[in-house]
User: What shape does this take?
Amino acid sequence: MSDENENIFNIRPAGRHILTIGRDLIQDPYAAVVELVKNSYDADASKVELFFKKINNILEIIVCDNGHGMTRDVVTGKWMVPSTNDKQIRKQSPQGRIMQGRKGIGRYASAILGEDLLLESVSKETAEKTTLVVQWKDFELAEYLSDVDVLIETKATRESCGTKLTMKGGFSFLQEWNEKQFKNLKKELKKLMTPIRGTKFSRDDEFDIYLSISGFGDNDVENEKMEPFPLFDLYDYKISGQINKDGNGTLVYEIQKNRSSKPENISFSFLRPTNCGAIYFDIRVFDREKESIESLINRGLKDDSGNFVGKLEARRLLNENNGIGVYRNGFRIRPLGDPDFDWLELNKARVQNPSKKIGSDQVIGIVCIDSEEKSNLIEKSARDGLKENASYEALRDLTKEVISQLENRRFIYREKVGISRKTLKIERDFERLFSFDKLKKVVNESLDKKKVDNTLRNQIIDAINEQEREQNEIAQSLKETVAIYQGQATMGKIVNVVIHEGRKPVSFFNNQIPLFSKGYEEYKNGNVSKLPIIYDKILKFSDNTVILSGLFKKIDPLAAGKRGLKKKEFIKKNIEGAFAVFESELSAISWSVNISNNTDLEIDCWKQDIYSVFVNLIENSIYWMKEKQSADKKIAVDITVENGHIEFIDYRDSGPGIECNLIESGVIFEPEFSTKTENGTGLGLSVAGESARRFGFELKALYSETGAYFRLQKIEAHE
Assistant: This one.
């Protein structure tokens, strides 16, 4: 043998390698059962039967299907070959089913279910029965995988085609299965396949799963068919439809709790390719107030045994059977869709905005994805979800956008029918709260009936007027306090701007002060060459002080701790001041403030209110133009003047715009309403609207096909 050949070696898998890709890689026994069920589907079976038997403290699990079975050549050349790419190459079964198995290791999951495995497969093609026996301990003891001998026998048979796997295990395997485990197994099997039909993503062929349990006492069942939970069809709100890979599609929104409502077609655009292929959505939401739970029961909610349930049981069913699952070729990818796996962080968003956002315990949903080749959504080998790559992040973002479409419409409906807490306009409610006009009218009418003389009448009315004056002083104080808080809320929206612009000069001061001190000490000790360096640092200190001073000046109108009397303020100058707050973020955005006669006009106001209106509008524009990657980013403010007075101020941007139904309902100005999928407080436009009223204008949203369009209109002009 040559020296060259002596240096060439082969990788030799250890005997326990087969257990590593089976028992150790698979997450839990449920995942193992699911893998074996999927193999039955790939074999074109119309049904698979699962038997769990306890016999003399021995666990026996049988998985039996009526598929086409395997020939001896398939068993030896494919079943016995770990990580074979056979299914990945074939892609479809003989009857045209899309193959579920791709990794070539799912069958070895049987090692987690028992100590040994008996495989019996009758081939439709050859009318032969092939039998294989595996003792998993043999692999654990063997030095190399090739050292383990597996007994395989084949003989002619008249038995019906199909495959039967029998796994047996002692006490350690038996104790894995109790009431809780069987309950979880049923959940897994009920959620394994999508209940939807009629889409290119759904599974429209016949494939039924039956479960039998014997020897486990109260948990025993016989031939129970695994069917979707009845909750799925009893939703309050639903949004469904397909989004194509270019990011465009049509969704349908439905309200089942209102029988008179008609489905609404929604033309949806992600404004960019999905980056995760085409997606089909079917998301169903449940209200959880007492009346809504009662309505859910009345629509026909039953338990697994077919019995109508009470309120406590209804809530339990919602708690245990919720989640938005991700499905490929009709089968769920675990753990996406488990109640305790909130992969969309719905609960986190709900904490920030409970009036609008839905929690994970309110939703049952289905998200159907394309193949790995088309979507780049890759299932992990351990069967514990999708790889968290860029396509997975894109899927999360797109799903949140679709959910947001439902949340917006649900919020409007609940406001309209009085289910949710009504939000009120603070300024106008203060006026109503402290108005005594109705009281004075009633008192006058009563005094007329009693024919009270004018002297007494005037004394009574004067007393009411005095009380009204005192109360309105309180109201004015409260209004000013609310205005200050609203200014601070707006201030909170530009914290990132303050940090970004202030970090550089602060960092300079922190870094340069020690060097400045050191240079000064050397200069004092006679090193005059340090003087020019010290002087240069003084100049830079001055430059950075100017930066900080400019930053404080820009945000000062929003930082006021109290308010004096209203003053005359130039409107254009203050709007430009609001834009200056976002100087660095506006560097890539074209913006302008134009006035019809080129003469800036004054209005009586607190300048904080002007800033409050436009800072909120600008911040929203910047967010949405970045979020939706608008190609040509623009903001324009046009001030229309007539007869020396401002009639209205139009604000437009080139972002994605606002949907008609949100504008018509006025819901975008309600506190807690936000269309931002994350970190949206719902305060911006509400605060902007209140601030505008304080200087005599109403903020309105108008529909535009080219971006967001707001108008500030003089209240006297249309009231």
